[in-house]
Amino acid sequence: MAASDANADKRRHQRVNVAKTVRAKSGDEEREGLVRDISAGGAALEIEADWEDGAFAEVDIDDLVSVSGHVTRTFDDGFAIEFDLDEEEEDRLLSEVMDMHSATNMEEE
What we know:
Structural class: alpha+beta
CATH topology: Thrombin, subunit H
Number of domains: 1
Order of helices and strands: HEEEEEEH
Radius of gyration: 14 Å
CATH architecture: Beta Barrel
Helix content: 25-40%
Shape: globular
Strand content: 35-45%
Mean pLDDT: 84
Oligomer: single chain
CATH class: Mainly Beta
Strand order of the largest sheet: 1-2-3-6-5-4
Largest sheet: 6 strands, antiparallel, barrel
């Protein structure tokens, strides 16, 4: 099994590729970028920032959600964030993410 397959198996929620602008803030530093993909539990963000794993961040995803969380990993052009959501907030975001996924699939057909 490839490493990416193993990571996908660990995820609780389906990830959806999106093209949304995002503003993220950690401490006094604020950056803008794009959402690479999102799930009810977190997102991968294309943002030029040198934030370390574990850093607290607030993110505002255009037309979707404003939420806080912690950086879980970094990569060359951004980082992944795990959202700090209660069960109700997670369910609401999951519904919105699945609506986006359905809309994207309909556009592709």
